[in-house]
Each structure stands twice: as C-alpha cells, then as structure tokens.
Amino acid sequence: MTFRRRNDARPPLDSAALERLALAYVSRYATSKAKLRDYLKRKIAERGWGGEEPAPVETTVSRFAELGYVDDRMLAEARGRSLAARGYGAHRLTQTLGALGISEADARDARQQARENAWQTALRFAERRRFGPYAREVPDEAQRRRAFGAMIRAGHAPEHVRRILDARPGVVPDEDWQG
C-alpha cells in the first residue's frame, strides 16, 4: 500500500480564501469573535498572506458578527444553559466564557442567570454524582472531602456545597435550609 504525501505547498491566503476559511469555521463550530479572530490569524501565520494590503481579519470578524454568523451574547447564554443542565456552577461558566474571549458585556446575562440558578445547579451536580442527599449512605470523611473538592471544581459556592453535603441521604434541602 502506497501512502501519498499531502501537498503542504499551498498558496498564500488572499481575501477570498480568508473569507472561505472563516465561513467554513463558523458553519462548523459555535464560536466567539475572539476565537474566530485567533483562527484566522493562525491560518495566516501558517500559509502566509498574499495580498498587498494587510489581512482584513478585524473586518471579516466584524462583518460576520453583523451578519449574525458570530454572536457572543447568544453563545454565552447557550454555554450557560449547557453547563447548568450538567450541574456546573457560576464559577465554571466564568472560566468557560473567559476561555472563549467573550466580553463582560456579552456575558452579563449568562452570568446573572447562573447566579440566579446556583442552588438548583449545585443540586443537579450532587444528584449526578450521588453526593449529599443523593448518596446511598452517609459518607466517611475522605469521601466527603472528595465530594467537596469535586463540587468546588465544578464551580459551586462553598456555602452551597457545605449545605448540600451536610444533608442526610434522602433528605433534599431547600435553598434556605440551614441544617
């Protein structure tokens, strides 16, 4: 069997090729303006730029945002819903949105929603992992420490984690429950 070597001697990018790359990227991935910008810059660095003017990266990103192909606010809200459905907390959402390069203004609504649903998402995570009221039996100290660490890494507030882990198996506490 003979393997062909891929021809990496591609021509440098021009405006039309840059546009095609951007369109292919946003059609395949839900992405932010910052991620699209980074992708286009990386492709220019890999293949070079063949145009006489500087590469229109910012213009392309702005136009794609105006056309609605890239919408940071909607992406932030979608990621917030997705993380909440899996039981991840507000801190985890903040980390995710930061990695996507989403601005504070575009992330504001998603973060507010995460704060409002913090208790429910903490309970959802505890249920998925069978912690606290969803455990089969009262955990020993080592199990409790592991559960505490897992919930903190999932982005939940320490006071919520303590209240959930203090609950006896089978007794789901209310948000205002004080143990």
General description of the model:
By secondary structure, this protein is an all-alpha fold. Helix content is 63%, strand content 0%. It has helices at 15-28, 33-47, 57-67, 72-85, 90-100, 104-116, 118-129, 141-153, 158-166. The longest helix has 15 residues, at 33-47. 28% of the residues are buried. The model has no long low-confidence stretch (mean pLDDT 93).
Q: What share of residues is helical?
A: 55-70%
Radius of gyration: 23 Å
Low-confidence stretches: none
Oligomer: single chain
What summary fits the major beta sheet?
Answer: none
Question: Total helix count?
Answer: 9
Number of strands: 0
Write the layout of secondary structure elements.
Elements (H helix, E strand, L loop, with lengths): L14 H14 L4 H15 L9 H11 L4 H14 L4 H11 L3 H13 L1 H12 L11 H13 L4 H9 L13
Short description:
With 179 residues, the protein is an all-alpha fold. Helices cover 63% and strands 0% of the residues.
Task: Name some characteristics of this structure.
about 180 residues; mainly alpha; 9 helices
